[in-house]
Write a structure and sequence with these properties.
The protein is α+β, with helices and mostly antiparallel strands. It has helices at 25-37, 40-47, 51-65, 81-108, 125-134, 150-155, 215-221, 241-249, 297-309, and strands at residues 2-3, 6-7, 70-73, 76-79, 112-117, 139-144, 161-165, 173-181, 183-188, 255-258, 273-277, 284-291. It has a 5-stranded mixed sheet.
């Protein structure tokens, strides 16, 4: 519709010919959370806002960008075409802002570092103790990170360096292999293969193995697909190591695990479980990883001490 030859815009939309106002990052975050949940009620809970307040925040953002970003319907909310364009850019803005703040804090507080580790049997203590000895005024913290969290924990600045096992995503990271460890098969003590000196993949071609949501993890720890191209047999879904142990102990699955992991010595506390070496497969890699752009002297020092002091158990 035109009025005196000019296009009419909704009342809360600015004239697109005018320069855009600076975006309020709080409003951008509200939109991103709302877009991810597609539901005003759930998004409002996450943001600790009322639904009416969240609606007003969205209107303010739409006024700032000059476009409707989201349509509200009886079955939830739907991004408009403009919203689909804006969402990844908004997510990038929030990520860049968080990264800028974290890097600035790191520069202002050069004597602070958080060291992440993914398993208790990966012993980071020698490197941590050396770092504390060499930098007695530094604040050195350690923090356990779930097996599938190293990449996110680093990029979200929850930790500054991580020692863990591949595979995990390595984009934007600098990764150094500390040592290799063989992979072995975990089985119940009464399994048909228990007691063998070693096995091959052919021996377990039809054995079910636990499945997790991460495809890279499945590819490596289930060896899926197998070298001949066949898919690995299916298995029960798991999300925790404890679930995997119980499935194996109960005879519902077998599992490929690190040969130096705490699970490999499970027979000490679980006499109903045992491990068998697997021939013909590559080892897993224990690595130290940090953000590629990080220039912290403490991170560099820890990585140096990790290379020297974190070794395969028993070596």
């Amino acid at each position: 519709m035109s009025v005196h030859g000019a296009t009419a815009y909704p009342e809360h939309m600015p004239d697109p010919a005018l320069p855009p106002a600076d975006l309020d990052l709080r409003l951008v975050r509200c939109f991103v959370v709302l877009a991810e949940h597609r539901h005003f009620g759930r998004a409002a809970q996450v943001l600790h806002l009322t639904q009416s307040s969240l609606s007003r925040q969205l209107e303010r953002l739409e006024h700032q960008v000059g476009a409707r970003l989201l349509d509200r319907g009886p079955r939830g909310s739907r991004l408009t075409a403009a919203g689909e364009i804006f969402l990844p850019l908004a997510q990038e803005v929030l990520h860049s802002t968080a990264q800028a703040a974290a890097r600035t804090r790191a520069a202002a507080e050069p004597s602070r570092i958080t060291v992440g580790f993914t398993a208790t049997n990966i012993i980071i203590t020698p490197a941590v103790r050396e770092l504390r000895r060499r930098y007695p005024d530094a604040q050195v913290r350690t923090r356990h990170v779930d097996w599938d969290e190293p990449h996110a924990a680093l990029l979200e600045h929850r930790v500054d360096v991580v020692v863990g096992r591949l595979p995990f995503p390595t984009e934007h990271l600098f990764v150094t292999v500390l040592y290799d460890e063989p992979r072995v098969l975990l089985v119940p003590g009464d399994h048909r293969l228990a007691g063998k000196e070693s096995i091959t993949l052919d021996d377990i071609a039809d054995e079910p193995m636990p499945v997790v949501a991460d495809p890279a993890w499945n590819a490596f720890w289930r060896i899926d697909p197998r070298p001949d191209g066949r898919p690995a047999p299916g298995g029960p879904p798991v999300s925790a190591v404890e679930d995997k142990i119980e499935l194996v102990a109960g005879g519902q699955a077998v599992a490929i695990i690190p040969g130096d992991s705490g699970l490999a010595g499970m027979s000490c506390v679980r006499p109903d479980l045992t491990t068998i070496p697997i021939e013909g497969i590559e080892p897993c890699h224990v690595v130290v990883a940090n953000r590629a752009e990080d220039r912290s002297r403490l991170v560099a020092a820890f990585c140096k001490y990790a290379r020297a002091g974190i070794t395969r158990p028993g070596t």
